[in-house]
Amino acid sequence: xxxxxxxxxxxxxxxxxxxxxxxxxxxxxxxxxxxxxxxxxxxxxxxxxxxxxxxxxxxxxxxxxxxxxxxxxxxx
Length: 76
Hints:
Layout: H1 2-23, H2 26-40, H3 45-61
Helix pairs in contact: 1-2
């Protein structure tokens, strides 16, 4: 699942970078590219996503990932 999400994210990042490259001056593009990759890359969103999924999988293995609808607010 994680790899599918990251593949999709990378496709979107490439599209954003192509659009930005077409619209920005080279120095502006270089700064934008660095910012985008920092925010959405391994040290940003990708890393956050990996941690969230790892925690979710850990909870599922421990049997804690199931919703308890008997508790108040447990059901939508």
